Amino acid sequence: MTRTMTDELSAHVGESITIQGWLHKKRLLGGLNFITLRDRRGLAQSLVDNKDELEKLRGLQVGTILSLSGTVIADERAPGGAELHDVTVEVMVPVTDEPPIEIDKPISHKPENLDTLFEYRVLNVRNLQEQKIFKIRASLTRYIREYLTEREFVEIDTPKLLAEATEGGAEVFQLDYFGKTATLAQSPQFYKQIMVGAFERVYEIGHSYRAEPSATTRHLTELTMLDIEMGFVESHQEVMDMVAGFTKNALSRVYDEHAADLKSLNAPELKLTDEVPKFTIAEIHEMYTKATGTDTAKEKDLIPDEERWIAEYARKQLGSDLVYATDFPKEAGKFYHKFKDEEGTVAWADLLFRGLEIATVPLRENSYEKMIEQMTNAGLDVNHEGFRYYLQAFKYGLPQHGGCGFGIDRLVEKTIGLGNVKEATLFPRDINRLTP
Question: Which of 103, 215, 99, 205 is nearest to 154 (CA)?
Fold first, then answer.
């Protein structure tokens, strides 16, 4: 027996074939009894008119795994323009419990329904419309990998169990590690900088952990991040161009190759420009204050409403869904950032996409002596064991480098036009959810 996939039926009209998959829907109409079967490619319809074969389905529920053999008949009313007739039914795995949700019906993504959405994720991801979200997600990460690989980036995997918090701060998860205290990695920050000393250009797509309030539409406690780092860069703009390049490439490809899926999900029209518009933090504060009457001049970062406002401005006035916020004030910088001393700003930009920050894009300090100075000024103990291996990389030579931390979950959310980052995540983790 050679298995035929559901989307191949129309190529086998008049032939006897076998399809296998899950019982997706039953329509028992007396003389006309239709079975819809689902496999990884989609749906196929079968007409079961033999009473003995129909009897095999008695008491069986959606999710039952079937093997259906029959003759392919052209019918424009059927999915894909063809269906099976003269069907022989083989029950491979019976399901007799009635499922708690109907997977062939639209799955609600209204805010008040999200707890139900996640509670029954194991089942609702079998809904074809729901699957589109995660197929689009898979394609976006594949496009990014291909773009970076073509530009000589090496994919790395870094530890997620650390002896120290990589970037400091209190937003870390601690756990007992054979009598020692370990933390879950907030990012691969130190490791990717270290690896610039070996490969020049590296990237990683992996999980990061943030013990921060996540009962919002923007945050998760376990998130998927793309991190890149590139050495021998001449300017901050070179790093910004690389990040803009892979982002625009991934978006353009997904809107081309998943056009029908995005349309069915009511995704917004994609608007991109050759150059991503950029405004300094100070400029955005001034523009926002003038437009709204809310004074944000003393903020060291953009407030969420400013992110939405400048993104809407860039879309409407400049035709771009992407916009950079650049030149953060010095007090916003971290010890590993490159400071533009004469201007009192940091070589750091945030990439915003449809009103949400999806990436932080800074230059790093690469001088060993300057790094020691900046760490000391930040109140860090440069002799602490947790910084030993990180500082080795600087002591023995790192070129000027920069990179980004890029939120994959947020990219997917905004690409599709979802209302919550958790909807773009298969099994989201926040302060209220550790299951499924």
Answer: 205
Mean pLDDT of 20-48: 91
DSSP 13: T
Q: Is beta strand 278-280 parallel, antiparallel or unpaired with respect to 201-209?
A: unpaired
Concatenated DSSP letters of 256-268: HHTHHHHHHTTPP
Q: List, for residues 224-281, the tens digit of each pLDDT value.
A: 999 999 999 999 999 999 999 999 999 999 999 999 999 999 999 999 999 999 999 9
Distance separating the N- and C-terminal Cα atoms of the chain: 37
Distance CA 353, CA 410 (A): 9
Contacts of residue 296, Cβ cutoff 8 Å, sequence gap at least 6: 285, 288, 289, 302, 303, 306
Q: pLDDT tens, 303-341?
A: 999 999 999 999 999 999 999 999 999 888 889 999 886
**The pTM is what?**
0.94
Non-local (6+) Cβ contacts of 4 within 8 A are: 12, 17, 18, 19
Whole-number Å distance between alpha carbons of 121 and 132: 14
Distances (CA, A) of 12 to 7, 71, 75, 86, 326: 10, 9, 13, 15, 58
3-class secondary structure, 129: helix
Question: Other CB atoms closer than 10 Å to residue 82's CB: what's the count?
Answer: 21
Mind giving me the DSSP string for 269-308? PP---SS--EEEHHHHHHHHHHHHS---TT-SS--HHHHH
pLDDT per position as a tens digit, 38-91: 999 999 999 998 999 999 999 999 999 999 999 999 999 898 999 999 999 999
Give the tokens for residue 435.
């299951």
- Pair 406, 225: CB distance under 8 Å: yes
* Alpha-helix residue ranges (DSSP H) falling in 34-83: 51-55
Q: Edge to edge, what strands does the sheet with 180-184 contain?
A: 161-162, 180-184, 174-177
